[in-house]
């Protein structure tokens, strides 16, 4: 596979495919270099559309691509009659349809893939701290007909506790969601930062706790930090004005 694409390692059914794009192999100029897939970040539209074509060519399957207008909320788009407008505001996509690649775009936020063990249902969620704290993973799980214990989830690269410094309001938002496990592990999930009054937050660990508390047992992932891995990923915290990479899932 080309350097544009990373294949997550998780024991998903044969007919479910997931990919994570890197920032490599595209045509966008600095600061969006080079495989920026987001139209909303100030990059030239023709570059983004060409990058999307390069990505589709690298995948090499006959797929439609569903993107969203992500708003850091908890709304889930259910696709049951083909593609809908990219301007739809939502932060997760659920479908049972074949050959529609459901994508979310991130630069530090977490994205999570879901499927059932039979490969009939799939979803992807965009989960930054605000989406995580307001239940985007739980709302996504609500769509599944399969029992949570039979689902598989995969957590994509996200800004790590090495770099995700947050204020009191972020920590409070998670302590307010009334999850005993998060309260119990508060001192691990939010390590005191060198900056007074700030914490280093572990979104990856928080997401695992939220999923487990909803009965998801099969949780996989590769906790790469998007900020640390500057060759591979965009990072909003690191670069500010920058591109977005994609997490894509589809079934055949
Ligand atoms: Zn880091």
Q: Can you describe this structure in just a few lines?
A:
The protein is of the alpha+beta class and 252 residues long.
Question: Helix/strand/pairing class, anyone?
Answer: alpha+beta
CATH architecture level-2 label = 4-Layer Sandwich
Give the overall form: globular
Strand order of the largest sheet: 4-5-8-7-9-13
Quaternary structure: single chain
Overall pLDDT score: 97
Please give a structural write-up.
With 252 residues, the protein is α+β, with helices and mostly antiparallel strands. It is 23% helix and 25% strand. A six-stranded mixed sheet has the order 4-5-8-7-9-13. It has a five-stranded mixed sheet with strand order 1-2-14-6-3. Strands 10-12-11 form a three-stranded antiparallel sheet. The protein is globular, with a radius of gyration of 17 Å. The structure holds zinc ion. Residues 160, 162-163, 225, 227-228 line the site of zinc ion.
């Amino acid at each position: 596979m080309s350097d544009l694409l990373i294949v997550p390692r998780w024991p998903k059914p044969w007919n479910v495919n997931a990919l994570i794009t890197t920032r490599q192999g595209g045509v966008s100029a600095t600061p969006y270099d080079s495989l920026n897939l987001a139209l909303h970040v100030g990059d030239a539209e023709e570059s983004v559309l060409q990058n999307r074509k390069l990505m589709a060519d690298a995948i090499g399957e006959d797929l439609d691509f569903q993107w969203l207008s992500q708003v850091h909320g908890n709304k889930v788009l259910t696709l049951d009659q083909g593609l809908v407008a990219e301007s739809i505001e939502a932060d997760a996509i659920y479908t049972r349809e074949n050959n529609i690649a459901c994508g979310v775009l991130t630069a530090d936020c977490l994205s999570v893939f879901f499927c059932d063990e039979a490969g009939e249902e799939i979803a992807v969620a965009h989960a930054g701290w605000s989406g995580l704290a307001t239940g985007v993973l739980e709302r996504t799980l609500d769509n599944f007909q399969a029992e949570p214990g039979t689902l598989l989830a995969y957590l994509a690269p996200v800004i790590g506790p090495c770099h995700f410094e947050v204020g009191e309001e972020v920590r409070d938002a998670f302590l307010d969601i009334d999850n005993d496990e998060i309260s119990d592990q508060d001192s691990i999930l939010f390590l005191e930062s060198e900056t007074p009054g700030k914490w280093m937050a572990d979104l990856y660990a928080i997401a695992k706790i939220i999923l487990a508390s909803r009965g998801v047992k099969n949780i996989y992932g590769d906790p790469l930090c998007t900020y640390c891995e500057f060759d591979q990923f965009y990072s909003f915290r690191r670069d500010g004005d920058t591109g977005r990479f994609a997490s894509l899932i589809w079934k055949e």
